[in-house]
């Protein structure tokens, strides 16, 4: 609760908390109020209320002079909460800004680091920073960077010439060391070669046949799976149709039974009504009229 007090010494008006009144008195009475400096001052209680804003709108008339209430140095709980929330939000914003600055600094430093890495990677093996980058990675990178296209082409040519020389020497040595000298030996050699070629061709044909068989088996399995799926679908459709037929037949049977029950109820009610009429003495029997009367009745 809050109280609107009139200070007798300074002739001012302000809003204070009810806990500051020592002692707490009713409206219109004088009491001592504990001020923010810790001292007690005499004041008169003008109005009490739980609404602080309402008390701050009240003007006090003192000797013909209207005195508006002075703002109290003690803030309300809502104002304190707002201040705390603002402080927390400002702290969080500061932290976020610091994190963003640090991340930006790291991002700005990345190009420098990459440049350093490239610089160290492209240096030759005889550089002073060889202890930093050692191994096959650096050697491979330096070779790729330092060697030109012409040098690479020359190396390839040398390797190709060396391979051709090796192949020619191998053919010559095989021809010189071979025992195929007589025509008979040459014929047997050609026969063996043809037999080997035939075995290889038969192997390739058998491999092709096996691959064809595998493909044929796979295709047959696919066809069987498709037929099996179609059969299952037909079985499900047939079962669904049978279920619907059973439900329809059951419904028709129930309708027939209901109609028969209604007919029996009507007959029973008719018999009961006739019995009651007989008990009352009302007998209604069909009377056969003569033909003349019936003819006149129809003519009318």
TrEMBL record:
Q: Where is the composition biased (Basic and acidic residues)?
A: 204-279
Question: Per its UniProt entry, which superkingdom is the organism in?
Answer: Eukaryota
Residues covered by region (Disordered): 192-279
This chain belongs to which protein, by name? Answer: Tudor domain-containing protein
Supply the source organism for this entry: Trichogramma kaykai
């Amino acid at each position: 609760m809050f109280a609107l007090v009139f200070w007798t010494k300074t002739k001012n008006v302000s809003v204070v908390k009810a806990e500051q009144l020592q002692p707490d008195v009713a409206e219109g009475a004088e009491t001592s109020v504990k001020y923010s400096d810790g001292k007690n001052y005499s004041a008169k209680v003008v109005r009490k209320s739980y609404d602080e804003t309402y008390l701050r709108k009240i003007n006090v008339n003192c000797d013909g002079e209207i005195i508006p209430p002075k703002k109290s140095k003690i803030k309300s709980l809502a104002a304190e909460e707002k201040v705390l929330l603002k402080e927390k939000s400002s702290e969080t914003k500061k932290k976020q800004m610091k994190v963003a600055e640090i991340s930006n600094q790291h991002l700005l430093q990345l190009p420098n680091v990459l440049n350093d890495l490239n610089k160290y990677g492209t240096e030759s093996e005889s550089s002073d920073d060889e202890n930093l980058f050692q191994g096959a990675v650096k050697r491979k990178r330096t070779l790729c960077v330092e060697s030109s296209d012409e040098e690479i082409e020359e190396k390839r040519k040398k390797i190709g010439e060396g391979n051709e020389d090796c192949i020619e020497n191998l053919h010559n040595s095989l021809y010189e060391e071979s025992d195929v000298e007589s025509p008979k030996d040459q014929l047997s050699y050609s026969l063996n070669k043809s037999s080997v070629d035939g075995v290889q061709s038969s192997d390739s044909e058998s491999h092709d046949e096996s691959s064809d068989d595998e493909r044929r088996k796979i295709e047959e399995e696919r066809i069987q799976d498709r037929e099996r799926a179609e059969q299952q679908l037909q079985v499900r459709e047939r079962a669904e149709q049978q279920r619907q037929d059973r439900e329809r037949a059951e419904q028709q049977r129930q309708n027939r039974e209901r109609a028969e029950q209604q007919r029996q109820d009507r007959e029973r009610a008719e018999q009961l009504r006739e019995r009651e009429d007989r008990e009352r003495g009302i007998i209604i029997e069909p009377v056969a009229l003569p033909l003349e009367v019936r003819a006149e009745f129809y003519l009318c």
